[in-house]
Structure formats: structure tokens, C-alpha cells
Amino acid sequence: MPMSSLSAAGEEQTPDEELLQEYERFLSGKAEGTIDAYLRTVRQLMTWSADRPSHGQYFLPQQLTKTTVEMYLAHLERDGYSLNHRARVKSTLSTFAHFLIEEKGMLQRNPTRGVDLPAQQMLAPRLLSEDQRFILRTLVEQANDRRGAALFALGYWAGCRVSDVSWLQITHETSA
User: Fold this and answer.
1) What does residue 97 show for φ and ψ, rounded to 5 degrees?
2) What is the largest CA-CA distance in the chain?
3) Is the per-residue pLDDT at 172 higher than 80?
4) 133: helix, coil or strand?
5) What is the pLDDT of residues 51-83, one digit of tens each?
6) Domains in the chain, ordered, with CATH?
7) What contacts 24+ positions apart, CB below 8 Å, involve 53-62?
8) pLDDT surpasses 60 at 175
């Protein structure tokens, strides 16, 4: 038995662990935190994939298909993971697929290609009512506070950038 298939305690390693060790060596130029995150993500996919019907006890690289990636990302969504997290998972799986293609020759095509994640939903800005604007503006005026004036402007003109508020404040002060 080759030495690489023995763990430090002399126990035989699973095929998943051997593949993860090779992948870790492939990632050797990346930051330690990045390597840890990539390995954790791939290990979670391997565990999930091995539990699928007809996938057997271990993850097999040929099981990393577009369907597997789509179903795994859907699983993460159902479990409440954010769109940003799922995008990081997809990116990590793309890197893993690249390793399986270029270094191992185990895949022909990157299964993450063509897998689309929904666009980040933009929340509509909440506009203040006329009474709310009156109260806020009165409070800001009474406090004579530039920060409060900026907050008022942001609340009054939905979508107004901080730089726009600063310009309004400077323009107001120079014209007074």
C-alpha cells in the first residue's frame, strides 16, 4: 500500500481524504484561510454528494456534474444560506473542478459553467411620509447638526449618495 494512503496514525485514508490532500497541495499558493475555506466547502459537497441515491459511500469526481452543482446550491438555499455564500460555494467548486480537469484529468468540462444564481434582490427604498419628513427636518433644524442634516437628506431623497449630501451641505453653507 502506498504511503500516501496511510494517515499519521497508520490508518488507511478514504479516497475522499486522498483527493482533498492533493487538492490542498494544488491550492498551496493561496492564503491559509482561503485554503481552509475551500477544503471545508469541498468536503461538505463530498459528504452531501456521497449521501445521494446511487452515489455510494464516497464521493467520486465524475459525480461532480452540473446537476450535482445545481442541486447542492438549491440545498444550501433551502437551508437558508445567503446568495453571497452560495456564490462563494460556486466559485470554490469551480476551482475544484479546474483542479479535477487540469491536474487529475478526471473531468472533461467545468460543471459550474452555466449554473446561474439569481440576481441579488434590490430592496426598494422606503420613503418617509410628509409628516415624518416634517418631524425629522424640525429636529435637525433645532439640533443645528451637520450629521443630522445629512441623515435627513438621505431619508428625504431616497437613493441620494453621501457625496451628494456633502455637496448639498457645502452649497447651503456657502450660499447662506
Assistant:
1) -65, -40
2) 86
3) no
4) helix
5) 888 767 778 888 899 999 999 999 999 999 999
6) 3-102 (1.10.150), 130-175 (no CATH)
7) 58/14, 58/15, 58/16, 59/15, 59/16, 59/19, 60/15, 61/19, 61/100, 61/104, 61/106, 61/107, 62/106, 62/107
8) no
CA 48 from centre of chain? 19
- Residue found by looking up cell 500500500 in the block: 1
Q: Which helix (H) or strand (E) holds 50?
A: helix 32-50
Q: Whole-prediction pTM value?
A: 0.62
Record the cell numbers describing residue 73, joined without a space.
Answer: 446550491
Rounded to whole angstroms, what are the CA distances from 80 to 85, 91, 115, 135?
10, 19, 19, 39
Cell for 11? 490508518
CA pair distance 68, 3, nearest whole angstrom: 32
Which single residue is written with the C-alpha cell 472533461?
108
The single residue listed with the C-alpha cell 440545498 is: 75
Grid coordinates given for 19: 483527493
Burial 42-66 (b: 16+ CB within 10 A, else e): beebbebbbeeeeeeeebebebbee
- How many Å apart are CA 155 and CA 152, to the nearest integer? 5
